[in-house]
């Protein structure tokens, strides 16, 4: 039997039982990119109409998962999603420092699925110690506000100010997502690299409901593109198109739950399900 050379990619993330975001979105995205996805689970998030709860995995359980992943040959990229306490941030920082491959960090510090928001002491440590280990970070508007002094983000100039502050921490690439939250007809995001600023825009899909998992899917797609050897610009372009299609084919889980869950496989499979 010939050796299967499918590239391997890791997500360090939480589980979302409703499978809009979290490692479920990451694995679905990795599959669509033709990659073999591995997971190190940090937590289990449960979402109901009234509640967003996060149950952390014990630090030693996360550490053992990372130990087993250290045994894997030729990992092609890593994506980091939800980390829930300082011990996890320290552990993951030590793990990332030993790697020489593309690292994408989605700073999940606040979620639209509930009133979950990290404390200031956590955010300070996370900003200084973890984020500079990334090749690119992908905050949404709420996270950009938590990570910088820019407290009102309403314009292209505000996005530029946010990205400048984050780059000053030693993060080469920052991709801040205006997304649904930023007013206007377009879903507008800003990529800032050492070469300058570049806006990405696509028509805003007219959603009658919230959309769950768009940020996880975008960052997983960026990591997948980098794992395949795309340049940062190519990976971002591909990811922006990919998440747009995943939102366009999002799934409604029922009247008792708010929001649609993105479906990374939707574009490929939709004709088969109709
Ligand atoms: N209604 C929408 N139509 C099209 N693209 C969207 C829409 N909402 C968000 N996006 C895009 O989805 C990606 C994820 O952004 P966002 O939803 O803001 O992330 P998060 O889930 O972290 O809050 C970004 O590229 C954003 O522009
Ligand atoms: C485990 C986990 N990570 C991350 C997120 C953030 O998801 P989104 O892509 O909607 O920002 C969620 C949201 O439900 C989650 O449950």
UniProtKB/TrEMBL annotation:
What is the top EC class of this enzyme, as a single word? Answer: transferase
Organism superkingdom: Bacteria
Tell me where the signal peptide lies: none
Keyword set, alphabetical order: ATP-binding, Kinase, Magnesium, Metal-binding, Nucleotide-binding, Transferase
Q: Which residues form the Pyridoxamine kinase/Phosphomethylpyrimidine kinase domain?
A: 16-256
* EC number per UniProt: 2.7.1.35
* Keyword Chloroplast part of the UniProt annotation: no
InterPro entries linked: HMP/HMP-P_kinase_dom (IPR004399), PM/HMP-P_kinase-1 (IPR013749), Ribokinase-like (IPR029056)
**Catalytic reaction(s) noted:** pyridoxal + ATP = pyridoxal 5'-phosphate + ADP + H(+)
Q: Its Gene Ontology molecular function terms?
A: pyridoxal kinase activity
What Pfam families has UniProt attached to this entry? Phos_pyr_kin (PF08543)
Q: Which family does it belong to?
A: Belongs to the ThiD family.
This protein is called: pyridoxal kinase
In the record, what lineage is assigned to the organism producing the protein?
Bacteria, Bacillati, Bacillota, Bacilli, Lactobacillales
């Amino acid at each position: 039997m010939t050796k299967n050379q499918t590239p391997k990619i890791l997500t360090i993330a939480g589980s979302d039982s409703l499978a809009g975001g979290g490692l479920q979105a990451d694995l679905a995205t990795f599959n669509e990119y033709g990659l073999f996805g591995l997971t190190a689970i940090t937590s289990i998030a449960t979402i109901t109409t009234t509640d967003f709860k996060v149950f952390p995995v014990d630090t030693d359980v996360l550490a053992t998962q990372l130990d087993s992943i250290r045994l894997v040959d030729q990992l092609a990229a890593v994506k980091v999603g939800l980390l829930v306490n300082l011990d996890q941030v320290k552990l993951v920082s030590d793990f990332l420092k030993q790697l020489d491959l593309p690292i994408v960090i989605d700073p999940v510090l606040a979620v639209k699925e509930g009133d979950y928001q990290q404390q200031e002491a956590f955010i300070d440590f996370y900003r200084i110690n973890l984020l500079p280990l990334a090749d690119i970070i992908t905050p949404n508007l709420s996270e950009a506000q938590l990570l910088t002094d820019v407290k009102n983000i309403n314009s292209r100039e505000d996005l530029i100010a946010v990205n400048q502050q984050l780059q000053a921490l030693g993060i080469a690439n920052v991709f801040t997502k205006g997304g649904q939250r930023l007013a206007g007809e377009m879903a507008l995001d800003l990529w800032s690299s050492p070469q300058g600023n570049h806006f990405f825009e696509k028509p805003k899909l007219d959603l009658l409901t919230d959309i769950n998992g768009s940020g996880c899917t975008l960052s997983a797609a960026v990591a997948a593109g980098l794992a395949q050897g795309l340049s940062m610009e190519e990976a971002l372009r591909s990811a922006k198109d990919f998440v747009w299609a995943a939102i366009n084919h999002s799934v409604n889980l029922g009247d008792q739950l708010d929001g649609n869950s993105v479906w990374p496989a939707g574009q490929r499979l939709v004709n088969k399900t109709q």
